[in-house]
Amino acid sequence: MEQLKHECGVAMIRLLKPLSYYREKYGSVAYGLNKLYLLMEKQHNRGQEGAGVGVVKMHAAPGNEYVFRERALGTNAITEIFTEIGHKLAGMDVDNMPVDEVDAIAPFIGQIYMGHLRYSTTGRSGLSYVHPFLRRNNWPSRNLLLCGNFNLTNVDEIFNSLVSHGQHPRLYSDTFMLLEQLGYALDRENHRVYHEYRDRYSDPELSEMIENNMDMERVLADSAPVWDGGYVICGATGSGDMFALRDPHGIRPAFYYYDDEIVVLTSERPVIQTVFNRRRVEVTELKPGSALIVTRQGDVKVSDILGERENRRCSFERIYFSRGSDADIYRERKALGANLVPDIMHAIDNDLEHSVFSFIPNTAEVAFLGMCEGLEKCLDASKTDSLLKLCADGRHVDAESIRSIMSRKLRIEKVAVKDIKLRTFIAEGTSRNDLAAHVYDVTYGCVTNDVDTLVVIDDSIVRGTTLRQSIIGMLDRLHPRHIVIVSSSPQVRYPDCYGIDMSRMAEFIAFRAAVSLLERSGRGSLLREVYNRCVAEVLKPAADQINCVKAIYEPFTDAEISAEIARLLTPDNTHARVSIVYQTLEGLHAAIPSCPGDWYFSGDYPTPGGTQLVNRAYINYYEGNHDKR
Fold first, then answer.
1. 3-state secondary structure of 160
2. The predicted structure's pLDDT at residue 122
3. What CA–CA distances, in Å, run from 443 to 261, 362, 418, 422, 436?
4. CA distance 458 to 160
5. Taking the alpha carbons of 259, 264, 265, 266 in that order, is the dihedral positive or negative?
6. What distances in angstroms separate CA 512 from CA 203, 356, 489, one per listed residue?
């Protein structure tokens, strides 16, 4: 019901054959560019604030550009980028001109392709923050294109490291600082190879030897150990080396495929399956702490750079962010819905006859299917009990009685349809709430007035803004007796600092509910106590800190907090009773055992930087800096 801004999407391609091969086999020298477009469009859900494309041309003629970049802002950024690239290629009939000429001078037709889809995670926006970032140099092997799906928690440490080496970073941005840090390591690697070959070769052969013998494992091993956060960092040098490194806890996802003609890496598995028509088993998950590296010569290897640590793969990725077309994610989301059934049955007093079930938004549809399958089992059990009771009564059992029992069905309806035409008119300001209330059209006549319970499942309830401003009021127009809002994810209680835009305590409805309960129960002094503890904690090294904010929730059960959330989110003029049912942590882990990362629900952060930032986030909240990240 409310859209989260979240981690970004990445796509990388390395062509392993000459351009003539792709023209002959696939009909176009722009094969790589076309595939990049498809990979980005298939991941459009991962970033709609901006996008960027980078291309490395390994055989450019001297005097011609060999590293290309195009970026744009907005939801139509991908279209704008590839339209602009088309304009730059206009006048060149690249599929009919000599391949050597295309290889030498045609813009954006090269061997390495990089795509990025951006959702801001730091509060900063604008074209200067859109990936890929580019570090220029007169030597191809010192040029660096960089993009990533990441957020680092120790930017201060990296910044100070750069300054200690005599650098002067121009922007206080984690991406920019990574660019400079990797660039510094790249310079060191250039120097290392130069010193190794300078006595045996002279230019231009020496430059060629440097380009052919760069060791990207060294570059990454020299830079990455200091990084604290969740990340998939992708890079390409101007001379043709390519890499993608995943964080050691596997917080951010990455998948790859390669054969004798292409290497491809993306943030999601089904994207590769669809675009390249590959089977699921042919697409490999990049191991946490490892890097996919493709050398200038086209050699492909996966290298362990940081070692694999405790599995903390992001569960929100499975609940919400990734496309549900992945076989595992589809199964997991159905399990999330099914695991909610006992609590839903309790909320509706086991009365399936007078309950209507639906979902909002479309991303919750798979969890809805799982929920319905679980409810069908409850209904089947009810039918069985009724039949057994009918037989046990010793009365004559007639066909009509059996038919009446067997005809009971779940009441499944599409109660809300989003009116896309209104979407662009919803802006900030006093008119926003009234407009927001009409974004959805309701389906009248599917609920019996003042009799039925209306159960609607969502994939997450984080802030609750959309619920209060539009959804509950919209559902109330159907005149149910009781509205039950169901979240397939648990209560989001803590900030995320690894790539999801959930960084401020005050924005979480679960946190606001706990604070409200403390104040209403006369225990508001705990808020000050926790503040004092956080102030003391942040003076310690990050590795020694504990999450003090957990104490805010400890006095209350999950059910008490859910009830307070429902009270806070119910508009004053609502006629129906409103309840909210959240997934439990146990239900989450049962449904998604392979991705146990749950710090936004549990407060158990996978890295020291996460614990440090949650304490700082509470300090900002208590001191009134609600917008500070």
1. helix
2. 46
3. 52, 16, 11, 17, 17
4. 43
5. negative
6. 66, 30, 18
CA angle 144, 261, 323 (to 5 degrees): 75
Largest distance between two CA atoms of the chain: 104
Is the model more confident about 157 or about 487? 487
In what side-by-side order are the strands of the sheet with 284-285?
Answer: 67-73, 50-56, 112-118, 9-15, 262-266, 255-258, 284-285
Which amino acid is present at 59?
H
Phi/psi-derived region of residue 285, left when phi > 0, alpha when psi is between -120 and 50, beta in every other case: beta
What does R_g of the chain's alpha carbons equal in angstroms? Answer: 28
Residue corresponding to tokens 């900002």: 620
Asked if residues 370 and 333 have their Cβ atoms less than 8 Å apart, the reply is yes
Query: In the numeric block, which tokens belong to residue 558?
Result: 């999950």
Between CA 157 and CA 165 the distance in angstroms is: 13
- At 109-145, the pLDDT tens digits run 999 999 999 865 444 567 777 899 999 998 999 999 9
The three-state DSSP-derived secondary structure of 39-61 is HHHCCHHHCCCEEEEEEECCCCC
pLDDT for position 435: 55
Instruction: Please write the tens of the pLDDT for every residue from 371-416.
Output: 999 999 999 999 998 888 888 876 677 888 888 888 899 999 988 8
Query: Rounded to an integer, what distance in angstroms lies between the CA atom of residue 498 and that of residue 619?
Result: 19
**pLDDT value at residue 426:** 40
pLDDT reported for residue 120: 54
pTM: 0.90
CA distance 146 to 234: 6
Say if CB 76 and CB 65 are below 8 A apart.
no
Contact between residue 443 and residue 417 where contact means Cβ atoms under 8 Å apart? yes
Residue recorded with tokens 């990936």: 131
- Per the CB < 8 A criterion, the answer to whether 340 and 587 are in contact is yes
Q: Which amino acid is at 528?
A: R
Location of structure tokens 């509950």: 472
The CA-based dihedral angle spanning residues 346, 348, 354, 356, taken in that order and rounded to the nearest 10 degrees: -110
